[in-house]
Amino acid sequence: MRRTSAALLALAIAGSTLFPGWVEARGAGSSSSGVRSSSSHSSLIRCSSCPRDSKGRIERSQEAVHEFKRTHPKPAGCDKCEVDHVVPLSKRGPDTPANMQWLPHDVHREKTKLELYGK
Fold first, then answer.
1. Degrees (nearest 5) of the Cα angle 104, 16, 58?
2. Ramachandran bin of 92, using left for φ above 0, alpha for ψ from -120 to 50, beta for the remaining angles
3. Which parts of the chain fold into alpha helices (H)?
4. What's the average pLDDT block by block, 10 residues per block, for the chain (119 residues)?
5. Structure confidence at residue 45 (pLDDT)
6. What is residue 117's predicted lDDT score, i.e. its pLDDT?
7. What is the DSSP letter of 21?
8. What is the three-class DSSP state of 6?
9. Can you tell me whether residue 9 is helix, strand or coil?
10. Per-residue pLDDT, 20
11. What whole-number distance in Å separates Cα of residue 68 and Cα of residue 80?
């Protein structure tokens, strides 16, 4: 099971289309070439310069998520898909629809663990 999750994660990160509509469901202009992470934002330390909400979490734009969902409906057959930031907010990725994509819940969880903890 873990090997399967790792393989799915690798495919998702590489931008492959595991199900119909994935490429279309990723924000326009979402190439990582235009977005760079800051060297001061290691994956093992907390982003100290990221804006935080009242609960200490990195602030997210509900308007941006709403716009992404409006313009990129959830892919057919992916009831458990979640909105993911291609370049994580903790790595100074923009909170815009262009930096969002749909990922299945288990793949999203594995990607987040890899981004935050390197495992």
1. 50
2. left
3. 2-13, 62-71, 105-117
4. 51 43 43 40 61 87 96 93 94 94 96 88
5. 54
6. 87
7. T
8. helix
9. helix
10. 37
11. 17
**CA distance from start to end of the chain:** 16
Contact 42, 91 (CB under 8 A): no
- pTM as predicted: 0.62
Please report where in the chains the tokens 């291609």 appear, as a residue: 86
Instruction: Provide the residue count of the chain.
Output: 119
What DSSP string describes 54-105? TTSSBP--HHHHHHHHHHSPPPTT-TTEEEEESS-GGGT---SGGGEEEEEH
**Please, which residues have CB within 8 angstroms of residue 3's CB and are 6 or more apart in sequence?**
none
* Cα–Cα distance for residue pair 61/43, rounded to 1 Å: 22
Q: Check residue 43 and give its pLDDT.
A: 43
Q: For strands 100-104 and 81-85, give the pairing.
A: antiparallel
The two tokens of residue 58 are 């990195």
